[in-house]
Write a structure and sequence with these properties.
heterodimer; A: 264 residues; alpha/beta; 7 helices; B: MetI-like fold; 0% strand; binds adenosine-5'-triphosphate; binds magnesium ion
């Protein structure tokens, strides 16, 4: 099955009272079916904006995004999104949140039940099945959001810093789990992260973005064999290379923010 | 302080005021016709509450006899009107509010009319309501429905408009249809607002019922207070007023229980 993503000549601008913000400029990116791509870049460089465009929530101002050969015009369950803000439904229990996508697909109740149970177990949430999101910690909410998308079984996963709120141990085990699901089910993954280490651990390709305008600075292929060893010299060599790329963007970002502060 | 001792102090304050009130009567500072002492009110209250006829097994069950007192009949009459009017008002306001909140076109179409009608107090409809519905329950229910309608409507509109867009995105991402989004996302997300509107609405209904009863019907707590005034029965007036207060409190408590149950998922809820 084809679940490639082709992004060509995409621009995205936001009109604001302080002028036009160019969030994305001339983004060209091709992601093959089954590829795992990480987007890396400083805060505010347009990672969420790009993901939202692929998801079909906010279409590009210019350019075209094709998924599976077809232009993206609206959201759909073929592109499951894990939101940076989790976006759990607070009035549904954990189990209801995870099962909601299956309910929409009109699966039989027993099937939903068993699938939800399996996912909750996988994400170590079984005891919390009947709780409401307000009773959960940030990391637990994030896991529920991930379970909700895994339940959908979409061929494409769009993940916006899905592990950002997790402690190192949980984070590591979920990374392993995601890699297992990805390689077993052949999903295409577009994964946003702030963490250089995480991107090297996960990705086939790392796309480094620049800050304002958001453009692609570098597209790096990671060929290290999996599972990747963060202590290996190759891993660390790549990490150093990426650090330099990212920190120069980071500096521009901080500069810009300081300037914004002084002019306000 | 602990909640228990705080509540105890609240009861103490009420007792202190009662004692002061009684003392003012005993010392002869006020005319008992103008402000009867609490014990007189209590006696009158009991008379008003108790069945007027001795129990007669031939005329009906013991429960019916127990409920045959004037006060209980009045209270049930008032409650019936409040509930009927409130339900009519809410059933009209809820779908309209959901529609106006969800659709900009409908909102822009209906809003000017609403803004003109909203400031008209329900009381101002009394002459028209009697002209249209005559005397008895119908005009009273009409007035109460108007009183409940606007708070429910305005809060429902606000609730739908305040639904966080991220929930709509998440639902669309899961493949939800428009009707699913409406029923499973917009409706529950706006429930806190809707319930607030209903709570205000039932409070308004309770105010309106008393006024409506003073004009259009010949039973109910409002009617009885006005009737007692004709005979200078201040003790009965006060007994009726306190009954209104207690029933209002009971209704508000019931609403708050419903609130806590429906919003058990809601953040920042005091249990
Ligand atoms: N709706 C909007 N209106 C105006 N500006 C916006 C809007 N959404 C995003 N932006 C701007 O576009 C830029 C990119 O935002 P985006 O959320 O995509 O960044 P990000 O890379 O996801 O950042 P972070 O890592 O902090 O999540 C930011 O400068 C932001 O201020
Ligand atoms: Mg973001």
């Amino acid at each position: 099955m084809d679940s490639s993503i082709v992004i060509s000549g995409v621009n995205k601008t936001f009109p604001t009272p302080h002028g036009v913000v160019v969030a994305l400029q001339d983004i060209n990116l091709e992601i093959r079916t089954g590829e795992f791509v990480c987007l890396l870049g400083p805060s505010g460089c347009g990672k969420s904006t790009l993901l939202n465009a692929v998801a079909g929530f906010s279409l590009p101002s210019q350019g075209l995004i094709k998924v599976n050969g077809q232009a993206v015009t609206q959201p759909g369950p073929d592109r499951g999104m894990v939101f940076q803000e989790y976006a759990l439904f607070p009035w549904m229990t954990v189990a209801q949140n995870v099962g909601f996508g299956l309910e929409i697909k009109k699966l039989p109740k027993a099937d939903i039940r068993s699938r939800v149970d399996a996912l909750l177990k996988l994400l170590k949430l079984s005891e919390f099945a009947e709780r409401f999101p307000r009773d959960l910690s940030g990391g637990m909410r994030q896991r529920v959001a991930i379970a909700r998308i895994l339940a959908l079984d979409s061929p494409i996963l769009l993940m916006d810093e899905p592990f950002g709120a997790l402690d190192a141990l949980t984070r590591r085990s979920l990374q392993d789990e995601l890699l297992r699901i990805w390689s077993e089910l052949g999903k295409t993954v577009l994964f946003v992260t702030h963490s250089i280490e995480e991107s090297i651990f996960l990705a086939d390709r790392i796309v480094v973005m620049t800050y304002r305008p958001g453009t692609i600075k570098q597209d790096i292929r990671v060929t290290l064999p999996r599972p990747r060893d963060s202590a290996s010299p190759e891993f660390n060599g790549l990490k150093r290379e990426l650090s330099e790329l990212v920190s120069s963007e980071q500096a521009r970002h901080e500069d810009a923010e300081r300037r914004a502060l002084t002019t306000d | 302080m602990t909640e228990g001792s705080q509540r105890f102090k609240g009861v103490l304050l009420i007792l202190a005021i009662l004692a002061l009130w009684e003392a003012v009567g005993l010392l002869g500072w006020v005319n008992a016709k103008v402000l009867p002492p609490p014990h007189a009110v209590a006696i009158k209250w009991w008379e008003y509450l108790a069945p007027q006829q001795p129990y007669d097994p031939d005329s009906g069950s013991r429960l019916a006899w127990l409920l045959s007192g004037e006060l209980i009949q009045d209270a049930m009459g008032s409650l019936y009107r409040v509930l009927a009017g409130f339900i009519v008002g809410t059933l009209l306001a809820l779908p309209m509010g959901l529609l106006m909140g969800a659709s900009r076109q409908v909102y822009q179409l209906c809003n000017p009319l609403l803004q003109i009608l909203r400031p008209i107090p329900p009381i101002a409809y009394i002459p028209l309501s009697i002209l249209w519905f005559g005397l008895g329950n119908p005009p009273a229910i009409f007035l109460i429905a108007i009183g409940a309608f606007f708070p429910v409507l305005m809060n429902t509109i606000a609730g739908v408009r305040a639904v966080d867009g991220i929930f709509l995105r998440a639902a669309r991402n899961l493949g939800a249809s428009r009707s699913t989004i409406f029923l499973r996302v917009i409706l529950p997300a706006s429930t806190p607002y809707i319930l607030t509107g209903m709570r205000i609405g039932i409070g308004t209904a309770f105010i309106v019922v008393i006024v409506a009863e003073m004009i259009a019907v010949n039973n109910g707590l409002g009617f009885r207070i006005l009737e007692a005034r004709e005979y200078f029965w201040s003790d009965k007036i006060i007994a009726g007023m306190l009954t209104i207060g207690l029933i209002g409190l009971a209704i508000d408590q019931a609403m708050s229980l419903l609130n806590n149950h429906l919003l058990r998922w809601h953040r920042g809820l005091e249990h």
